[in-house]
Amino acid sequence: MRYLVVPEWQGSPSARAMQLIDGAEAIRDDLPASRTEVVQVPLEAGSAMDTGVHRASSIQMVREAVVATLERYDRIAREGDEAAAADTAQSADSGPDTGSATSAAENTEGAAKAEPVLVVGGDCGVALGAIDHASRAHGSDLAVVWFDAHGDLNTPESSTSGAFGGMVLRAVMGDGAWPLTAEHPVADERIVLAGARSFDDAEATFIEGSGMTALTVERTTGDDLVAAVEASGARCVYVHVDLDVLDPARIAGITGPEPFGVEPATLVPAIVALKERFTLVGASLTGFAPASADAADDDLGTILRIIGALAR
Length: 312
Prior knowledge:
This protein is of the alpha/beta class. 41% of the residues lie in helices and 12% in strands. The chain contains ten helices and eight strands.
């Protein structure tokens, strides 16, 4: 597995948002250096660009950088390491190669050969580009399992905060404000939201009228998750973990704690069960915002167990 560290904070509604940078860096220190790359995040907050999403311009810049990096990994898998040198030279001369001239067949071939990538945030917004990349390659074979204490199902019209972190999963399904929506949406029938226990009214209404599956904390088990993905007909899975899905008694460095969450001892084997049954084509882990370096150390054991389950 490769690791792509993306210390984005602009999608978070929290006053502690910039501590997400510290969290991403703390996790990076425990990842294998030879397998890890960092996406540079703009220093500025960014503008809304008439989207209704706070800091949208910076979030979009990060999304493009994530997609360009994943496409470079696909090209390396398809053509060999010489592609990396060519892409690096092109990036230096003219900016990142978005792969727009690459055929759908080549995209699928490269993604099939490439190792899965774990995108480490930062806030949940880092998952949009990664899931869109996976959806382009795998189409209706892809299901998304989204572990989160919150729904992340608002749109700019329904959001009370304007923060993209509360809209990401809806954007994955193609709803929201362009350019912060998926180019290759995942159908709601192939979305599994697991462990969520805090919803806005608009999010609860959307879930009731959609074909997505929402599993309570009690049903966030390997058996229930595997059954939900099997029912979608998917053969591949993208797994997203926002660390606030965990019970706050088990992890301190999160910005939006919600009581009565998932136990690490439940989450880790659930991820393993998904990997044993389906092909993992990508993953993301977000939401780590430690109050200090010492506090980060207290949580890293739990976080590394989750990463180990994704990477094994």
